[in-house]
Each structure stands twice: as structure tokens, then as C-alpha cells.
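Entry 12.
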Amino acid sequence: MIHTEALTRTFRVGRESVEAVRGIDLDVAEGELVAFLGPNGAGKSTTLRMLTSLLPPTSGLARVAGVDVVARPAEVRRRIGYIGQKDGAGHNYRVWDELLMQGRFYGMSKSDAVESGSALLRTLDLEALRMRKVSSLSGGQKRRLDIALGLIHQPGLLFLDEPSTGMDPQNRANLWEHILRIREERGTTIVLTTHYLDEADQMAERVVIIDHGRIIADDTADALKRKQAGDRLTVVVRTDSVPRATALLATEGAELASRPDPDGTALSIRVEAASHAMPGVLERLRAAGVDVVAASAHQPTLDDVFLNLTGRSLREGEA
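Predicted 3D structure (C-alpha cells):
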């Protein structure tokens, strides 16, 4: 569905050139759900705008739904759905009128637009709102309408640019329930940008991490966390037990780290399946006469992956 080679985009800001995207190589297969993750300014939205033909690349190749985005941008737009960061519907229009007009803009017959629009209203729980003005909808209802507008012409590929930004947790969960249901029913390929780590972790089959305009990691969330971060096991020991505990833990795993703790010293090691490794490690520590005060297992997050790759937190990047 998507193939890019060395895709770049440079902006002119006054007399300076800003390289927003610096050579993106990407392949997305039919039916995948892929999340672009990265801090603000990393190049996520710029990449999406190039893939959707809204922004011409400075250099490189991009084919979307089998079509070159530079040579045939109108054909790309016919084959995709795109939901940007802002509301797409006219606030003074009714929900149903907006859907029908969108379908007609795509060249659908009136009967086909009515059939597709009616199905989307049912699927997205908007049926009761069909004659309401867009301005009267809540934020979550407007985002669901945006998705309906992006899918009215039944595209095989849907782009979502930070679809749940600004929503409360309940509305975010509700929106994702609808997105995943549509994907299951239609087999739609979905590419999204997000700065919510949990969305990328739980929803996407692949996570593409972008930083400074380049892809720095591309894999499943679980594989990235396992390869780039790994589980950590932390034990808090009495100060007089630190030498013995350090010597023993150094043989258990790599990257032994320590930090002060109110109850003594916290020692942590990187291990596979920390929660399963914990009982055996604690038993060996006690057998060696180490006074263990507390123990905990930490499973990595995608923020840990980004920290390991770049030396800084994704959340720091957002700030």
C-alpha cells in the first residue's frame, strides 16, 4: 500500500533551510495498522502530508495505493482517506448533509453515497445525530464524523494524524473501539501519527519511531521493547549488603545500576522476563546473606525504547 525511497522535505525559514524529513524508506503492506511515533517536530505529520499528496516531497520516491504521489496526486486522493488534526466538517452544516456532499465530491452516485453514509452512521454511533448541526456535536462526536468523512468513499488506506489529541481517556477509548471495528469489517490499512505512547503500544501492529526526520526504529512494539530496552529487576538492600549484592547481581545480568533509596540502596539489572526471574534472584541473594528490603519488576515502555535510542525521553521531546 505504501512504498517510499529516500523521501525528504526541506522548508525555507527566512534565509535558512530546515530539513523536516531526511530520507524516509518505508513499506506498509495491505491491511497493516502502523503507528508513527516521535516527539513534536520529528517529521511525523510532514511525512503523512507528503504521502497524502498535500505536500510535495523535496526529493525521493513515494507510491501510495500503487500511485506516484508526485506524478498523479489526484489519483492518490481518490484512493485514500485522510483525517487531519483539525475538524473536517463545516460547523454550520448538518451531519448527514456533510456526509452526502463528501461522497458526491468523490464522484459517488447519490444512492451509493446514501448507502455508504448510512452504514457509517450506524457503525460509528452517529445515527441519532444525523440531522444535528456539526457545531452542536461534542469533540468525540466530531472526530467520529471526521472518520466517517474519510471513509465515505470506501478507501483501502486511511491516514489518521493524531486522531485522539485533546480527548479524555473515555472518549479516546471509544474512538479506538470504532476505528478497530471498521478495520475488522473492511480490512482497511491504517497509518497514524500519535504522541500517545499507549495508543502506539496497544493498537498498532508496527511502530515506526521517527526522530529528527529519520526512522530510527521499525518493528512491533513488543520486539522494540525487548530488543532496545528489556525488563529490569530492582532490589533494595541495606547499605552494608551492597558489596555482596553487587557482586552477585553482576553475574545475573548486564547493565547493573544503583541509586540511593530511603531504605538503603536500589540495585537494578536488565533481565528477560523480570517477574519470572525475581524469585530465583531473591533466593540467591538471601542465601548470600543479603538483607533485601524490597523488590520490583519493571516492564519497558516505548518511552524507554526512545530513551535507549536517543538518550532522551519522548515526553521530554514533547515538552
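Annotation: The mean pLDDT is 90. The first strand starts at residue 2 and ends at 13.
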